[in-house]
Amino acid sequence: MAEKGSENAEYDYDLFVIGGGSGGVRCARFSAQYGAKVGIAEERYWGGTCVNVGCVPKKLFYYASHYSEDFKEAEGFGWEKIERKFDWLTLRGNKDNEIQRLNGVYRDLLDAAGVTCFNGRARIADNHHVLVGDTKISAEKILVATGSWPDIPTFTGSEHVISSNEAFSLDKLPERALVIGGGYIGLEMGSVWSRLGAEVTVIEYLDYITPGMDREISNEFKKILSKQGIIFKMGSKVNKVKSSGSTVTINYTDLKSSKDETLEFDKVLVSVGRKPYTEGLNLTKIGVKKDEKGRIEVNAKLQTSIKNIYAIGDVIKGPMLAHKAEEEGIAVAEILAGQAGHVNYDVIPGVIYTSPEVATVGKTEEQLKEEKKSYKVGKFPFLANSRAKVNNETEGFVKILADSKTDKVLGVHIIGPHCGDMIAEMALAMEFGASAEDIARTCHAHPTHTEAIKEAALAVDKRPIHF
Ligand code: FAD
Questions:
Q1: Which residues are catalytic?
Q2: Three-state secondary-structure class, residue 437
Q3: pLDDT digits (tens, 9 = 90+) for 8-38
Q4: Which helix (DSSP H) or strand (DSSP E) does residue 264 occupy?
């Protein structure tokens, strides 16, 4: 690679990154820190989906909505009943301020690392040239990190039928909301609205929610959300969505009974998946191959079919998650610096931020069955965990799947309090190739929720202590 800041370099940049989101920014910063001369272009907002319309605003709304339960809970712990009023616009303003702050932080971090930032839409002119507006830039290596975009079916398109991009900027809390799609993004938003007082209905085409998740966890998750008041219309297909004034009318078919029904809402969130965002990049013209889902094909070193062009994050295969994009960004930076960067795709945790949380890492029971792997299951309910009992948060359980012969942990799935943080222990254990017995023999502090993990590990060999 050319010396950082070298006047005589063959190219303007050693690396040019397209997309200033989770993956692109990580790669740009790390590459610059490894000594490369790096440029990056961002067309919309620094920090990408995660900061602007994803993880960050969602987390803020989630955090705000949890108070509704805490106030109720507190009464059972001696607090007197106090009348509370919720102001949606205060929350929205708080969210806007936080995003603006983070946009600045991302830019400052890039500046501090010596990365040259371009505000504008980039497209690839040829293997070694990128255009940002009219500016032509040459680069030895190019990284495509342009993320994804909500998959929006043709029936959408009125101000009351929105995608997750608009969900955090509404003028008011919907009173009757429909979520089309029972995936994690729709359920997280739906459960925030529900906790803040909206009546929420979810229509899902399949018979179960959160496809891809361990089915036992997904069933329990649906049970808990239903108990909280969310209405589910499972095995149902939306036919027509029609807006009129301030309401939206939905016509759907219950696929089991073949009966059609019509419902009315004041907001509809369409959340049926996301697709890779590669529009206008010129990829096909220069010979970068994509798969049948429009994802850029890459090898284990994250190189595309054009060897000096790399791709990471939502635009390639794998879970669409910010931490996966970040790991890939770091891996590319390491590879370009001559190191052995790699991502362990078997150990990428996933968390659903609802109340309670859902957290998973590794294989599901359905995947192990499909792979004809022989496995053991250890489960432990939070109902028998002393800390969960004291806190009155006893819903859910820990499930550990381990290889029948070697006892190696193959997957961990948790629904319950604070499991979004607890899953890190399991990801670390799996990275180190731990057995269920290793976890069972690890001393866990008492009284903590993490003891449920130890108990589930003991239960793999049918010897839990407290059950
Ligand atoms: P992005 O972060 O999307 O960044 C791509 C950037 O490229 C964008 O800023 C875009 O403007 C820019 N761009 C695109 N084309 C061009 C071009 N031609 N020129 C210049 N710039 C361009 N993940 C989690 O891990 N945890 C969560 O809790 C979570 N919650 C989510 C909630 C919601 C509602 C959504 C929608 C997503 C959530 N995600 C979450 C997913 C996460 O946001 C994405 O997986 C992650 O942002 C992907 O990173 P990326 O770098 O691939 O793309």
A1: 446
A2: helix
A3: 469 999 999 999 999 999 999 999 999 999 9
A4: strand 259-265
**Residue 319 above 60 pLDDT?**
yes
Cβ atoms within 10 A of the Cβ of 126, count?
11
Q: What is the pLDDT of residues 59-114, one digit of tens each?
A: 999 999 988 888 878 888 888 887 788 999 999 999 999 999 999 999 999 999 99
C-alpha dist (Å) from residue 424 to 22, 89, 342: 19, 34, 19
Pocket test for ligand 1, best of 131, 137, 163, 321 (most atoms within 8 A of CB): 321
Check if the beta carbon of residue 329 is closer than 8 Å to that of residue 26. Answer: yes
pLDDT digits (tens, 9 = 90+) for 114-159: 999 999 999 999 999 999 999 999 999 999 999 999 998 766 657 7
Q: Give the pLDDT mean for 265-282.
A: 95
The stretches of 196-293 forming alpha helices (DSSP H) are 215-227, 283-286
Which whole number is the average pLDDT over 359-370? 98
Angle of the 184-195 helix axis to the 215-227 helix axis, nearest 10: 20
Number of H helices, E strands in the chain: 14, 22
| Distance (Å, whole) CA 289 – CA 44 | 25
Q: How far apart are CA 467 and CA 464, in angstroms?
A: 6
Q: Encoding tokens for residue 423?
A: 């899953």
Task: Provide the CA 257 distance to its chain's centre, in angstroms.
Answer: 34
Atom of ligand 1 nearest to the CA of 353: 28
CA 11, CA 4: separation in Å to the nearest integer? 11
Per-residue pLDDT at 302 exceeds 50:
yes
CB atoms within 10 A of CB 344: 10
State how beta strands 176-180 and 199-203 pair. parallel
DSSP state for residue 435 in the 8-state scheme:
B
Cβ neighbours of residue 15 under 8 Å, at least 6 residues apart? 1, 27, 28, 31, 36, 37, 38, 39, 139, 140, 141, 142, 143, 336
Classified as helix, coil or strand, 382 is helix
> Ligand 1: distance of its center to the CA of 20 in Å?
9
Q: Let me know: does 307 contact 200? Beta carbons within 8 Å.
A: no
Q: Which of 40, 52, 55 to mutate to test the pocket of ligand 1 (most atoms within 8 A of CB)?
A: 55
Residue in 340, 341, 320 with CA at minimum distance from that of residue 330: 341
From residue 19, give the alpha-carbon distance in Å to each of 22, 143, 315.
9, 9, 11
